[in-house]
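Subject: Sanity check before I submit

Could someone independently write out the structure tokens for this chain? I want to compare against mine line by line before I put it in a report. The sequence has 166 residues.
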Amino acid sequence: MELTLDNIYEYLENNKKNLKFKDRDDFVTKEFGASKFQTLFYDKLSKIYDMPKELTEFLIKIFNIQERDYHFLQIQKYEIGDYILPHKDNYSHFGLTNLSTSSLDGLTVEDHDNVYKFLPDKTGNIINVPKYRWHWVNPVREKTRYTAVFGLKSIYTEDYSILLDE
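---
Independent answer below. Compare away.
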């Protein structure tokens, strides 16, 4: 089956028990504590390759990127009640797209004018999260939520971990 935006949610739901999603209890911010969600990784820096090839190829295609354009690809899964607490990222290049649709659930992002906006989930929407801006996901209410992320670390940093709450 060729993966498309029209069938990605069904694919993820039908395979979520077979995919190697990892609990992200390691995602902790100084101000707010630990988040609750899961991630499927393809991370060249950490050498974690839990994502099947068909998903990696699908994400490269929907993000319209090449191998040199990213250090990691992720699919994030939020079951009902899961969330990611307010945090800031420092990637030199970062992309996020929704893989599920919901009028209740979404991402809150601080834009360039320091205004917080709630962006409801819509499959295929690409969201620009400005560097060093607050963003979070409130506890999911409607159904399992999926997003895809790619990131490219700055060539000027020696620390490849996510820098939170600077």
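---
OP: Matches mine. For the report I'm noting this point. The domain at 8-152 is CATH 2.60.120.590 (Jelly Rolls).
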